[in-house]
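Two quick folds needed for the group meeting slides. Do the first one here.
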Amino acid sequence: MLCAKILLGSRVVKAFVRHEHEKNRFFDANQQLLQTSLKALGFVVISMPLFGLVMNMAMVGVVWLGGFQVKMVIWKLVS
């Protein structure tokens, strides 16, 4: 148990000595995450309106085609 505490204490001391290195490493990882998140956000900003447009156009097409089919059935019933 004492040996583990000594080794753990050694790690803590090393961590304090490497504080600037660890801080820079964290900053670099944080910047990389920020860049990746911004790329993903850019994709979402572009794709969501396009997907909405495609879905709305599909709905318009379904209603338009359905309207023509109903109109044909009504004309067949009338004549």
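Then this one, please, same format:
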Amino acid sequence: MYNNMVRAISLLSLLFVKAVMAASPGYVIKLPDQQNWKIVHEQRQGNSFIQEFVKNNESIQAWSEMVTISHVEQFIKTSVETVVTQTINGLKKGCPSFRHSVISNNPTTVIFRWSDEGCGGWPAQEGVMHITATENGVFNFQYAYIKNKVSPLVDEWVKTLSEAKAVP
């Protein structure tokens, strides 16, 4: 349920473009060890989309690390602060153990680390989220991992997501 809620929030507050791990219309992101990732979920509605990647030997049902990229087309301009607040409030409502700390922010982008102690039958997770508001909508670049299942290089992911760009 929690994972479905995270997906629903991503779909409602931040949806995704056709991605490849280098450059494609809508965004540019270079994943560390990009050849070891595969797309396991993709959905598009108009100019809004979501795409989820896991390691090649994992599935959407059983993963240790996941990258989610999404874009939601907006018809009414919304500030990045409003989007971040709505996203965090929605996650806290569905998962009371959800915590976050802002790494960086500016008028169009907020990057924060987050964690939870497990929700909706899913084990404890941590991650990094980058939310950018553009004239065309809101982009969300996210890295998540299952606590104690992997030894992630979180600082590398903070750098990777900090360098991710929405392309008008």
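Slide caption for protein two: The helical segments are 2-13, 80-94, 154-163.
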